[in-house]
Amino acid sequence: MASRGVMSASGLASRADRIRAKLQSKLEASVLAIEDVSHQHAGHDAMRESQYNGGETHFNLKIVSPKFEGQTLVKRHRMVYDLLADELQSGLHALSINAKTPQEIAPK
Amino acid sequence: MATINLISAKISPSLRLNPSNSLRPLPTLCFLSPLSTHSSSTNHNFLSLKQTSNLSTTSKLNNKPRSLTIVSALKKLSESDSISLSSENDGVLTSDSGVYAIYDSNGELQFIGLARSVAASVDVHRKKVPELCSSIKVGIVEEPNKDSLTQAWKSWMEEHIAATGKVPPGNEKGNITWFRPPPQKKPDLRLTPGRHMQLTVPLEQLIDRLVKENKVVAFIKGSRNAPLCGFSQKVIGMLDNQGVEYESVNVLDEEYNSGLRETLKSYSNWPTFPQVFVNGELVGGCDILTSMYEKGELGSMLK
């Protein structure tokens, strides 16, 4: 993964890069799609008052990971949220998460 | 036969149907008996196919057998009897299904409606706008269903428009005089009596109690009547769609739910909103509810 290890305390890497790095290493994701959709939410009330308005606040995540095996959707989402706790505390506002196991995406 | 075209003609989109009114059965005399007893009036039937069947109508009949048989028994608006809506006539209206036309004291047609129980609907109108309800004409629809009632309503509307060039004022777009107000949504729950009040119980405990005492609770941004976030709106939409009772709490209400946002995040170990609880357990946010909704699992979980 090109972005692995990019995470830095200096905050130079983009949030998407940091999200990728954190999820990739811990979840051993076979699919990890990260889409920054912050611009779609730049107008809403909570964002207008935020210092992060319009920048790296909303992401769509698609993750396929064997670690999700046997976990409920709530648990899968919690795993992701836990890994991204730092980001959620520093302006990441909302995630849309699609969490699947390799088995679930296998063609039937 | 021109009348056939009237039936199938498209009604202008600005015309609205009266939403089915209360089904409350009222004890009534059947003043306007169904047409089966008015055999002598068959000659005046709006669509009396038996008497007019010729080649062209027969072929049309074969194309649209359903709508034609449905309205074949309905009298024309102009040929229906007018009944005074004075108080001594209380109880004479039929509680059968059909169309009705209400006239004011000048004989001006005010509104054409349809109802599952004509008497019950007219009762509502008379309570709301007694000054506009002077007399009425009723057309009973036998074997009423949504289609047949709509057809009957359309035929009277078309007839009136053809005769006067006007839509009855009560049927005009934006006129809500004759329509029931939409049901009010429940208010959101508040966790505290207000910001200025000292809480005797920790907020966390209030949350705990709330989600355990109510089967379904949605913590959302904004009120359920006007969600301020698209995800919250979607969740409310899905819950409404399931037709289940649920409570909502506006996490942005700083007056009555002060501090709720941060406390709820730690209570549920979930960093974002909306959050939906069922039987005291966090079910998830918008993504999870959507996924359950799409799989058809949401309804069974909420029941």
Largest interface: A-B, 17 and 19 residues
Give me the count of strands of chain B: 8
Level of helix content of chain A? 25-40%
Number of strands of chain A: 3
Which stretches of chain B are poorly predicted, pLDDT < 50 over at least 5 residues? Answer: 1-71
Tell me about the biggest sheet of chain A? 3 strands, mixed
Number of helices of chain A: 6
Helix coverage percent of chain B: 25-40%
Side by side, the strands of the main sheet of chain A go 1-2-3
What is the average of the pLDDT values of chain A? 82
Beta percentage of chain B is 5-15%
Write down the Rg of chain A. 14 Å
Unreliable sequence segments of chain A:
1-10
Classify the beta-strand content of chain A into a percent band: 15-25%
Multimeric state: heterodimer
Question: From the alpha-carbon coordinates, what is the Rg of chain B to the nearest angstrom?
Answer: 27 Å
Sheet with most strands of chain B = 4 strands, antiparallel
Write down the secondary-structure element order of chain A.
HEHHEHHEH
The structural class of chain A is alpha+beta
Topology:
The complex is a heterodimer of chains A (108) and B (303).
Chain A: H1 15-27, E1 31-36, H2 38-41, H3 45-48, E2 58-64, H4 73-83, H5 85-89, E3 94-100, H6 102-105
Parallel strand pairs in A: 2-3
Antiparallel strand pairs in A: 1-2
Chain B: H1 2-8, H2 49-52, H3 55-63, H4 65-71, E1 82-84, E2 98-103, E3 109-115, H5 118-128, E4 135-140, H6 146-164, H7 203-213, E5 216-220, H8 230-242, E6 247-250, H9 260-268, E7 275-278, E8 281-284, H10 286-295, H11 298-302
Parallel strand pairs in B: 5-6
Antiparallel strand pairs in B: 1-4, 2-3, 2-4, 5-7, 7-8
Helix pairs in contact in B: 7-9, 8-10
